[in-house]
Amino acid sequence: MQIASVRQASPAAGGTGIARLAPQPRTVAETGLADNLLGDLICKHLHDAGVLDMQRLVERLALTGSVLDELLAFLRKDGRIEVLGQSGGQGLRYGLTDRGRSAAKDALLRSGYIGPAPFPVERYRELLSAQSVHQSRVDAQAMRDAFDGVVLREELLDELGPAMNSGRAMMIYGPAGTGKTYISQRLIKLFHEAVWIPHAIAINEAVIEIFDPQVHKPLPSGEPRSLRLDEGIDRRLVCCRRPIVITGGELTLDMLDIRFDPYARQYQAPLQLKASNGIFIIDDLGRQRVAPVDLFNRWIVPMEEKKDYLNLGGGRHCELPFDLILVFSTNLNPLELADEAFLRRIGYKLHFGYLRPDEYQRIWQQECEKLGIPFDPALVEYAIERLHHGEQRPLAPCHPRDLLGMAMDRQRYLGLDDAEGPSPKTLAWAWRNYFVSLNAN
């Protein structure tokens, strides 16, 4: 998959290749899963819902009718389910027998997962490799298109572009308020290919949920969905945009490994697994509840080997491709967070600095447009010369947004017309309330 611009690509881009890699399974054997795992999952769904017809089973398990026919026949022969007649003439309904209810309770004690059928981990490895984020290529025009309207120096754009192509981690550092987080989040705009995300994966008997609606944004796949469709892409996969995961001071080491919730009896995927084939941003580096050296040590092997070794507990481990763009962002001195040996492993260290007056003015004008107030060159000149330079405070990209927003809060409090825009007096009031002054009375 190649990127040469930011034109909107087809949401099913690459679908033909994925259809060969992950076709619709027509039999239980083609699902790559054991009969017992799928049988237990059907029993748990019936225990949860009471009675289900074929259409509802297809929707819940994301399997085709032919696969479910085979499984239902197996469960009926085993005495775990029974046919309860037709539903309004539309199809047979299925429910649990006493034996089936007992089996469902036992299955729930082992695993609380009730959702679509999982995707086997062996095929998931192939899927991650087939839609690798590192197959994309970013050129200078793509960078300028993605950051159109953003006040960012050309030389910094031309540093970010090669970093995105390198396949290596990057560190963005500089003073607070210089746009590191905003620019990092915007990097995902460089990618427009669809990726296919499994609802869950199966690692032996363990089922780990992967799809997270807060992270994965579905796209229309264009795939017709009928009960007995034997062609197209496996319905256990969801067509999504490339994901971006952002974590900050709340990050702990256990969030980077598979976790088992003993109450729900479910496995939770680590953050970097949800970010696979996308971007993973660790923001506010150095302000986590874990020591930076421990956090850095967690990434040494994945960065060098492009593989991540996840712990499932009980001495069980699983190896998965480490396919993502890893971005560290900090307003601390990188040399205080890690030694030079580790910093060498991070390919690119990009410094975000303060603004020039002309850049500050452009951002000020953009913020005025967003707020629907007139742009007054004299007011921004007052802010730069009298306020910033007068108190020797550098110009940061966040200042126009924050100062104008607070000034307009004051305007509304005083009952003044928004269309007038703030006055120097109102702006000075916002300034006093924005910055900490140890000399304040």
From TrEMBL:
A GO term for molecular function: DNA binding
Presence of the UniProt keyword Ribonucleoprotein in the record: no
AAA+ ATPase domain: residues covered: 166-356
Keyword DNA-binding: yes
Residues making up the signal peptide according to the UniProt record: none
Gene3D superfamilies the UniProt entry points to: P-loop containing nucleotide triphosphate hydrolases
Keyword terms: DNA-binding
Protein name from the UniProt record: AAA+ ATPase domain-containing protein
Domain of life from the UniProt record: Bacteria
InterPro entries named in the record: AAA+_ATPase, P-loop_NTPase, WH_DNA-bd_sf
